[in-house]
Amino acid sequence: MKKLIDWFKASSKLKRWMLLVLIGIILISYAFSQIWTLKEISFIHVGIIVLSFVLGFTAAIIGLISIQKRTLEISVKSKDKKENINIKPLVFKKDIYEDGPKVVAIGGGDGLNVVLEGIKKYTNNITAIVTVSDYGQTVSDSRKELELLPIEDIKNGMIALSEDEDNMKNVINHQFKNERLRGLTFGDVYMLALRECYGNLAESVQKSCKILNITGKVLPVTLDEFKICAELEDGTVIDEKDKIPQIVYEKVSKINRIFINPTNCLPAPGVLEAIADADAIVIGPR
Question: Is the pTM of this model over 0.90?
Answer without folding.
Answer: no
